[in-house]
């Protein structure tokens, strides 16, 4: 059996000496290749039509981490405008996830990718967890490299619970934002002890999951292996919707 081809959405670095540049940590491609699939880096697109043509050539979609989505997309003013992602990247990611959803394609959103899934379908975000949830756990690696970890509780009966086969896990944490209002068609699939949503999933789709931790930075974890194997199985159509 040939390995499925997984499209990965890269980051965008604006204002480089020779123009904008795509950026992707090789850990993302290793994550895919180590779990039974072949990675391919997708270009940014300017329309759903372009996203459709590209997704016709892959079996699954991964949305990676990065800077913040402009809060205008969920009806708020930006409190930390210095953290915003280039609008071209946000528009491209939205086009890919909306097209993937309509195609029934397996998708995995990582950190910003989880936030993209939520906002693209009508949800909102917590713009800065320390401000919005006083007393919350440390979720951001401040100072850089601190690599905080915490527990998550996985909601019974979810697709994520079926994929991981556990009710709790220890994960890393590198995000200063969180899921606010969950988008229509989605549900919370995991939370940290302070109540922050750590994973979301569509309820009408076999595998359309966003997680706030970074599995590519904990590649040897059994949680990572189980999640990625379920994702790859879903790209082959071998993953039935959890009851």
TrEMBL record:
CDD domains xref list: GATase1_2
SUPFAM superfamilies tied to this protein? Class I glutamine amidotransferase-like
**Is Hydrolase among this UniProt entry's keywords?**
yes
Alphabetical list of PROSITE patterns matching this protein? GATASE_TYPE_1
Query: Which keywords does UniProt give here?
Result: Hydrolase
GO biological process, any: polyamine catabolic process
* Gene Ontology CC annotation, any one: cytosol
* Pfam families according to UniProt: Peptidase_C26
Q: Which InterPro entries match?
A: Class_I_gatase-like (IPR029062), Peptidase_C26 (IPR011697), PuuD-like (IPR044668)
Q: Name one GO molecular function term.
A: gamma-glutamyl-gamma-aminobutyrate hydrolase activity
Q: What is this protein called?
A: Gamma-glutamyl-gamma-aminobutyrate hydrolase family protein
